[in-house]
Write a structure and sequence with these properties.
The complex is a heterodimer. By secondary structure, chain A is α/β, with parallel strands linked by helices. Helices cover 40% and strands 13% of the residues of chain A. The relative contact order of chain A is 0.08. In chain B, 33% of the residues lie in helices and 13% in strands. Classes of the chains: A alpha/beta, B alpha/beta.
Chain lengths: 659, 571
């Protein structure tokens, strides 16, 4: 007996199999013993292993760090050692900084995670762990619970290492833990149990009530109460309704949806089926960006498997409920994450937003009532219905319930995905999960909520993360990007970066966003330019004129833009102006960049005391702006210098002054 | 329900938008992208108003709700609108002085209204290539403010889709596919895009220079013809009330400009009726292809050539009145006055931009050398000509058109409004079939500005099922029925422009529904005021047949007054 499917296809009626797996359905008359089911479940969920299992983290982050090579080496080494072991690909466990992560589970021992595994380590892991049954201590990240946890006592529990200890994994529960392409493993982890419960015991209205009770809010950024949104569509009397999953994750520095799509796609599908049942939708789309090829591939397999198991399609689990799911690949426009633009994109139109009202819940895809939620929102749904809305709403703060996944990146030690309860402080996320600032530098700011969010300085580190608190201090939850910046980041440069992003992603439909963000960017470009690049006095005056109107323009863009992208487009400027005005002043009046990040403003000179005349800088200078005899002090020609910074980067004697 | 605008209470219908209530109550809110009968896109944001929660919402797209409190003139609103205008100006060529729309530009008006006194924002400007290749419509993408009105007109009203948005963000533009020129597209040159363009990004191709050169050349005999819809609209260009009839002032002005002879396209409209009524009767009596579609509107004809070549046999082979008049001038008239047709220059004054294209059709040349119509000027261009010539149009005397191509009846006049060609043809067909005029000359069921008007009319023993359609989107279902062989109509009039020539792409700007209504009323006033109201009573047309053409549908008439159509590809 290898899979649930074999049991199902031969003996047990499809509508009962989720109960069967859950132990609630007695299949002994069909010749399937309860023991054989729980045995299969234990094996699939790796609580029990009859032979060694090796699990390689092969999400996009793992692959980028060489997981494929590691995997190939395991194939080779397993053959070489002639051992009977199972090699499995799993998604990302969230600790991207430590990829490639490889887990090994051998019979009678805890599952152990190894970090930063390279092909060179594969032989050691096999010989030491699989053959000799001992851990490779220097490579160990942690171990999973097993018995009384006394085996391999010098290895910490994975859940107790700093990166994981504050986390509460609901959405990411299975990511990096199970094989995302194996529906049986998801089933063994109580997958589709929530769906079965819902279809068998709850009316659509009860599903909506429970969802409201759980307090789940849209995780795409807006934070609208999910149950209430569903209710709008439920109340619409229409034969055809649609459900859409927004998987067009486009914020720079956000990758939590990808982790779910790549690591636990069945969770999303289960959540979507429950939502579709609640609102009465018979058709659904996952709108996934084409830049996520692996996610799309896994999602395709997931849908096919769910169809095969009777979990998708017509008459799901014999309930009479039909739901068909399709994948629509986005063509790479950030604005298509905005729901009306996304709808137009699915319809085959130009991806531009339209005014709301009418809201999609009333008139959406092809003019029909449509509900759009993002990946993380749907992925919370199975948990809510497995554990109950009260259990769920007990997590979090008074106003924001459940957990939030953050993509932690930038200048922190531990980059990766962290899922923490609402109400966790920013400081805990950055300094406990994230392990603090990398390279011994000091914290300057954290950009929360992607380009639409805001940059918060040190004084807000103790803010408890929830929708209201972040809004109050001038950031937003957004999709959950957390980009940490240290003293070497210039806040004007940061605002400029985000404005570049916004201007290239603006759809161009409404005037304030199309024209306004371009002017904001130009104003920022002017104040971060060197005076040498100015052609006339008019240019110098323009810098000041621009700064005079920067705030006014930012406010108008915020107030008048058509869609969420435009309305939040100026946030990076508004928030940096609010907390880092001194940096703007330094650029404008002193023509300096305190963080020394705006290289165009810097003057590169040679420190005559330190220069030993090694000539390296002159060799590296791409425009031959540096001259000097060997063993003599060198000289930089300011007219030729392009401020590329290569000399400073290459000087080993600290002889280049940039200021 | 009740709402408050600027602290005053107003009654409002739940289906209304804020803008609709405000307009109804005389509270002015500026708009740029808004188009009255289409679903609002909310793109330009100039119509924002402030709600009591401090939010700015686009009044064109925002529905009213009970108890809503709206400010249309708060500090926040003024600042937002002014900023939007400033942003548009920052990305607009500063060439108002040499712009065709100088003085008729919404952006210029808004800048004046909101007191823009400096260039607050400056920087890069969008670029785009000037498209001058078509014979009728020119595009200047650098002047475009991307309101999208032309795109919507072309897609949603005219169903042509020759232009659309391309590129993204700051580099968005409106352009034909592959950024090609309009002349390679299915553009039918109706010019409706020009009439909705708030700035100078779209304009007619001007032939003023050629017209002046011909007039100034003593070797050239310049003959003008004036379309029916021009006389009820041109007054607007000179501050006269919409609907003012200027029939007599036009020939007076043309003569003072230096045109040698002034003929009336209304004459050719009567001539068209002789041929077309004959064609209709023949088809009905001899079991020919029905329904018969009219062929006066060159935009409509080009539309069929691009999209429905299967129905060519249903299209009347009659040239348009402009085409017939051009042919008669270069044959009958030339012979009569004994002037070499090569020395005759036919100048058409048309409410239309597509007529510029039509004039260039190679098949419309009786001499097989020069075109029958040398140059077509829109009503707007003609008004410019009058201004350049220093004429005070309002004080022009009333003069008549010249013989032998100047006499017209009321039936010729109503060609300018949707339903008019149909009505004129029915008046004559009825007479030809029954031997007597219709009891009531006014055939009102097919009058009005609706896009589709239908009627059954008893002619002798037969009942004819007829329709008058304007605005090209409205014609598709009729064409599909013809294609499928399920159409039971006898006669269908089609005008490309909604409402007909009175709302043509070459007419004075801006075109508002109220003005179109007035122009239409004036057209029927011209009809009513004429002693003869049926084409078959036009003695000059009768003389033309007696002295030159023979009989309607005869060999010579066929050679000179009928044409054929060609299948056209487009990108």
């Amino acid at each position: 007996m290898n899979t649930f499917k074999e049991i199902l296809s031969t003996k047990v009626p499809a509508e009962n199999f989720v109960e069967l797996i859950g132990g609630k359905y007695d299949a002994s008359k069909e010749g399937v013993s309860t023991e054989s089911i729980s045995e299969l479940k234990a094996v699939l969920s790796l609580e029990k292993a009859d032979k060694p299992v090796i699990l390689v983290g092969m999400g996009t982050c793992g692959l980028a760090n060489g997981a494929q090579e590691v995997y190939d080496m395991f194939v080779e080494e397993i053959k070489k050692h002639d051992i009977d072991a199972t090699l499995t690909k799993v998604g990302c466990v969230g600790f991207c900084a430590e990829e490639v992560i490889v887990d090994v589970k051998i019979p009678g021992f805890p599952r152990i995670s190894y970090k930063r595994v390279t092909p060179d380590n594969v032989n050691t892991i096999i010989e030491r762990t699989i053959v000799n049954k001992e851990p490779v201590i220097q490579k160990a990240l942690g171990k999973y619970p097993f018995g009384d946890n006394s085996i391999w006592s010098d290895i910490p529990m994975l859940s107790e290492i700093p990166f994981f200890k504050l986390q509460e994994k609901l959405v990411l529960e299975n990511c990096g833990v199970i094989d995302p392409e194996d529906i049986d493993q998801y089933l063994a982890k109580d997958g589709y149990k929530a769906l079965s419960t819902v279809l068998n015991t709850k009316s659509p209205l009860e599903v909506i009530k429970d969802t409201k009770k759980s307090g789940l809010q849209g995780r795409g950024g807006g934070g609208f109460l999910t149950g209430r949104k569903w209710e709008f569509a439920y109340n619409e009397d229409n034969e055809q309704k649609y459900l859409i999953c927004n998987a067009d994750e486009g914020d720079p520095g956000a990758f939590m949806d990808r982790a779910v799509l790549e690591g636990d796609p069945h969770r999303l599908v289960e959540g979507m089926i429950i939502a579709a049942y609640a609102i009465g939708a018979s058709k659904g789309y996952v709108y996934c960006r084409a830049e996520y090829p692996l996610a799309i591939e896994r999602l395709e397999k997931t849908i096919a498997a769910a169809m095969e198991y009777g979990l998708l399609g017509d008459n799901i689990l014999n309930s009479g409920f039909n739901f068909h799911l399709k994948i629509k690949k986005g063509a790479g426009a950030f604005v298509c994450g905005e729901e009306t633009a996304l709808i137009h994109s699915i319809e085959g139109q130009r991806g531009t937003p339209t005014p709301r009202p009418p809201f999609p819940a009333v008139s959406g895809l092809f003019g029909k009532p449509t509900i759009i939620n993002n990946v993380e929102t749907f992925s919370n749904v199975p948990t809510i219905f497995r554990k109950g809305p009260d259990w769920y709403s007990a997590i979090g703060t008074n106003t924001s319930k459940g957990t939030k996944v953050f993509a932690l990146s930038g200048k922190v030690v531990n980059t990766g995905l962290v899922e923490v309860p609402m109400g966790t402080t920013i400081r805990d996320v950055i300094f406990t999960c994230g392990g603090g600032i990398a390279d011994g530098k000091s914290f300057k700011a954290v950009q929360i909520g992607g380009p639409s969010g805001g940059a918060l300085p040190e004084q807000f580190l103790d803010t408890e993360i929830d929708y209201e608190n972040l809004q109050e201090v001038g950031a937003m939850m957004g999709s959950g990007g957390l980009v940490v910046m240290d003293e070497t980041t210039c806040m004007v440069d940061l605002a400029k970066y985000f404005m570049q992003f916004i201007t290239s992603e603006s759809c161009g439909k409404c005037i304030p966003c199309r024209e306004g963000t371009k002017r904001l960017l130009e104003i920022l470009e002017r104040i971060t330019k060197s005076y040498r690049e100015e052609e006339s006095e008019i240019d110098s005056l323009m810098r000041f004129q621009g700064m005079l109107y920067l705030e006014r323009l930012a406010e108008v863009i915020k107030d008048t833009s058509l869609c969420g992208l435009g309305q939040t487009a100026a946030n990076p400027v508004i928030s940096t102006l609010r907390y880092f005005r001194d940096e703007y002043d330094a650029h404008l009046y002193d023509r300096t960049c305190p963080a020394k990040a705006c290289r165009q403003m810097l003057t590169y000179t040679i420190n005559e005391e330190n220069c030993i005349g090694c000539t390296l800088c002159a060799q590296k200078c791409p425009v031959n702006a540096i001259s000097g005899e060997r063993k003599e002090v060198h000289f930089i020609d300011q007219d030729l210098c392009t401020h590329c910074g290569q000399c400073e980067l290459n000087c080993r004697f600290d002889a280049i002054i940039a200021e | 329900m009740n709402i408050k605008i600027n602290n005053n209470s107003y009654w409002a219908n739940p289906s209304e938008t804020i803008l609709q209530v405000a307009e109804r109550e005389g509270i002015k809110i500026p708009t740029l992208c808004y188009m009255a009968d289409l679903v609002p896109t909310g793109a330009c944001r100039i119509c924002v108003v402030e709600l009591s929660n401090g939010k700015l919402v686009p009044s064109c797209a925002y529905p009213v709700s009970d108890g809503m409190e709206i400010q249309t003139n708060s500090k926040k609103v003024r600042r937002a609108r002014k900023s939007i205008i400033e942003l548009l100006i920052a990305n607009h060529p500063q060439d108002c002085l040499v712009c065709v729309r100088n003085g008729q530009c919404s952006l210029q008006d808004l800048a004046a209204e909101y007191g823009v006194r400096s260039y607050r924002y400056v920087g890069e400007k969008r670029s785009g290539k000037l498209d001058l290749a078509s014979p009728a419509v020119e595009r200047d993408p650098e002047k475009c403010i991307l309101c999208g009105r032309c795109v919507r007109m072309c897609h949603e009203v005219q169903n042509v889709g020759a232009i659309d948005f391309v590129n993204r963000g700051f580099y968005s533009n409106v352009a034909p596919a592959m950024d090609r020129s309009l002349n390679t597209t299915a553009c039918v040159y109706c010019g409706q895009c020009i009439t909705v363009c708030p700035v100078g990004a779209l304009r007619e191709k001007s032939y003023l220079k050629q017209a002046w050169e011909a007039i100034n050349d003593p070797e050239i005999h310049v003959v003008a013809q004036v379309a029916p819809a021009v006389r009820v609209a041109i007054g607007e260009e000179f501050g006269m009330a919409p609907g003012t009839i200027s029939t007599g002032k036009i020939p007076a002005a043309l003569r003072r400009i230096g045109v040698n002879e002034v003929f009336d396209t209304n004459f050719a409209a009567d001539l068209t009726i002789w041929e077309e009524a004959n064609e209709l009767i023949e088809r009905i009596q001899n079991g020919g292809k029905l329904p018969l579609f009219t062929s006066c509107s060159p935009g409509w004809i080009k539309y069929v050539e691009h999209f429905y070549p299967e129905v060519f046999e249903n299209i009347s082979t009659c040239k348009s009145p402009q085409g017939m008049q051009g042919a008669m001038i270069k044959s009958y008239y030339a012979k009569k006055v004994n002037i070499d047709p090569e020395k005759i220059f036919v100048l058409s004054i048309m409410p239309c931009t597509a007529k510029k294209f039509e004039a260039g059709r190679p098949e419309l040349s009786v001499t097989h050398q020069a075109p029958d119509v040398d140059v077509v000027l829109s009503t707007r261009e003609f008004a410019r000509m009058i201004r350049i010539a220093g004429l005070d149009f309002t004080r022009m005397p009333e003069e008549g058109f010249d013989d032998p191509l100047g006499e017209s009846t009321g039936a010729g006049a109503i060609f300018g409004a949707s339903g008019g060609v149909m009505e004129a043809a029915l008046r004559t067909a009825h007479f030809k079939i029954t031997g007597k005029d219709m009891e009531r000359i006014d055939f009102t069921p097919i009058r009005g500005l609706e896009g589709v008007k239908e009627a059954n009319i008893k002619v002798g023993n037969a009942v004819l099922k007829v329709a008058a359609v304007s605005g090209l989107r409205n014609i598709d279902k009729f064409l599909e029925d013809v294609k499928n062989g399920t159409s039971d109509y006898h006669f269908i009039e089609v005008m490309a422009c909604p409402g007909g020539c009175i709302n043509g792409g070459g007419q004075p700007l801006p075109q508002t529904p109220e003005k179109i209504q007035k122009r239409m009323e004036a057209i029927y006033e011209v009809d009513r005021s004429l002693p003869k109201r049926c084409s078959h009573y036009n003695d000059s047309v009768k003389a033309l047949y007696d002295n030159f053409l023979g009989k309607p549908g005869g060999k010579k008439a066929h050679e000179l007054l009928h044409t054929h159509y060609m299948k056209r590809e487009s990108i």
